[in-house]
Amino acid sequence: MIGMAEMAGRELDGLRELFEQAPAAMALLRGPTHVFELANPAYLALVNYRDVIGKPLQEALPEIVGQRFLALLDEVQRTGKAHVGRATPVVLQQATPGTYAERVLDFVYQPLRHSTGEVSGVFVLATDVTDRVRAEQTLSQQRRLYEAILTNTPDFAYVFDLEHRFVYANEGLLKMWGKSWDEAIGRTCLELGYEPWHAAMHNREIDQVAATRQPIRGEVPFTGTFGRRIYDYVFVPVFNSNGEVEAVAGTTRDVTERKDAEEALRSANRRKDEFLATLAHELRNPLAPIRNAVQLMKHLPSPDPQLRPVREIIERQVRHMVRLVDDLLDVSRITLGQVTLRNEVVSLGSALTDAIEASRPLIEAAEHRFTVRLPSEKMQVVGDSTRLSQVFQNLLNNAAKYTPHGGRLSLHVERTGNDAMVVVRDDGIGIPSELHSRIFELFTRAHPSEEIKTSGLGIGLALAKQLVELHGGEITVRSEGTGMGSEFTVRLPLLETLNTAEATPADAPEHLAMSKRRVLVVDDNRDAAESLAMLLKFYGCSVEVALGGEAALGIVGRFRPDIVLLDIGMPGMDGYATARHIRSTAAGKDTFLVALTGWGQDEDKRRAREAGFDEHLTKPVDPSLLSTLLTVERAAAD
Ligand code: ADP
């Protein structure tokens, strides 16, 4: 049997143990001066193990004077009412005398009473909540900072839960939606009025980010209170402390202006390319009659021997101009994506020989020493031999142009794996290294023309690069700098099947083998028509001229030409319509119809064929091509 006293004793023991072990600070204060009667270890720890027992509070913890605790204790003592304080700061002396620290306490002052009901003391229970309060303060400060950033950024920031609902949306986004926080939060995109396809897309993306744990990016138009804008957005996973995706956060940026600017730039660039193409095309028209006239002068007996060098000047300059205009046209066509290669198996050696022959006059004129090392093995590539030879001719011409008189040039070819490397080197003026990256861009000229007396538009290398790339190759430059010479390397993938039949170069045309051909020239440009007619007459043809489609139709019936050279771009009845009409007449049924245009693109050639043309020539017509055509046609007709 346990007696009452013993039971009470055990309960007291339990209480004492609780008092000793409790993590909360406990103390018992007695009398009007609040003398410490008891203090547990947690309390002693709080006051830095000072010897407080038996001492009035003011004396035990002198730093308390001036803080509100004394007054509070007095009040509890006086009124007999407990006081509960929450997150109350207290400054306490530290182990080193004279140093103080602030702690934050949750505390209770509980009055104890005599049996008479009079207050006999105060029980103090305090919990140190400093760490929790500080952490909360830091968090709320961070939240304020983030909020300040998120509210003021022009971007939208938001968070979705995994059920696709918005759990956060910043000011900017709410404004764009025209919704309040309460209207928006907890809603899905669909509920916020997004179009169904758009809402479904974002739902899918949220699922994807949650499943793959990877961010995704997108761009989408949206019409909100700011009108129709283009938005660029990123969704990223938000992980919980276990590393699981608990939400998907997003940021969205209005990129409308940037997109517009890019589009404006693209369109300006397109217009520039189109302008260049038109310019080159228009420049060709006046060149055609000049070229014809010069060709004719060459064949006519000259009344004055002094005219011969004069004619040669015109001839050379026209040839130069045709080349410039052709380059310009080529480069703008390539940038407009209008060039397709006439792909065949090409012997690299013969493309190089063609280029060397074409550049030889320039190299010889400057008295450069020129060494050539061609491969002994047969190297074949798939491509357009004219275009390839144009590339190498360009490099050789540049080497000759940008090397002072009497320099050294070389061209050599070697094989590296499956590639042919064609290296064109000179010991000329060189190219500063900072220009190497830009030298293949259109209109880049490394040497201002005041410095170097050469002409050029800065097209050649851009064209070369584009052509080489169309062949699946690459062009690079090396130069140690100004005065140190330059080296251009063209890498071209080789055709591996060596037994493929080598492309046979077209036989040179027999010269001026035409007898009395009946040729009708139709062109609205009188100079072009008449100069071509004169040239053809010189070749021995019988020629008539029509300055328009309608006039041509009348002549065909009467003149019955073997060949009609027909300009395409004419006012009124154009070349295509004229061709169709000619084809539909008895006289024109079997006539050989040749289209003459400034463009010569595949599309034009197709249209020409459809309109009934047999051949298609690009203006200004190369005289040798013209004579070939007349010969070939005659052979076919005989
Ligand atoms: P262009 O010769 O018509 O100006 P290119 O595109 O062929 O145009 O060349 C661009 C520029 O590169 C030239 O203006 C010249 O400054 C520089 N360049 C090209 N080839 C050489 C070379 N072999 N040596 C030195 N500079 C060169």
The global form is elongated
Secondary structure: helix percent:
40-55%
Terminal-residue CA separation: 144 Å
Would you identify the CATH architecture of the largest domain? 2-Layer Sandwich
Structural class call reads: alpha+beta
The rounded Rg comes to 48 Å
> Residue-averaged pLDDT, rounded?
88
Number of strands: 22
| Number of separate helices | 18
> Biggest β-sheet: count, sense, barrel?
5 strands, antiparallel
Total separate domains: 4
CATH level-3 fold name of the largest domain: Heat Shock Protein 90
Specify the CATH homologous superfamily of the largest domain.
Answer: Histidine kinase-like ATPase, C-terminal domain
Bound molecules: adenosine-5'-diphosphate
Major sheet strand order: 2-1-5-4-3
Stretches with pLDDT under 50, minimum 5 residues: 497-514, 634-638
Content of β-strand = 15-25%
CATH class of the largest domain: Alpha Beta
What does this structure look like?
- The protein is of the alpha+beta class and 638 residues long.
- It has four domains: 131 residues, Beta-Lactamase, CATH 3.30.450; 102 residues, 2-Layer Sandwich (Beta-Lactamase); 154 residues, Heat Shock Protein 90, CATH 3.30.565; 112 residues, Response regulator (Rossmann fold, 3-Layer(aba) Sandwich).
- The chain has 18 helices and 22 strands.
- Adenosine-5'-diphosphate binds next to helix 12 and helix 13.
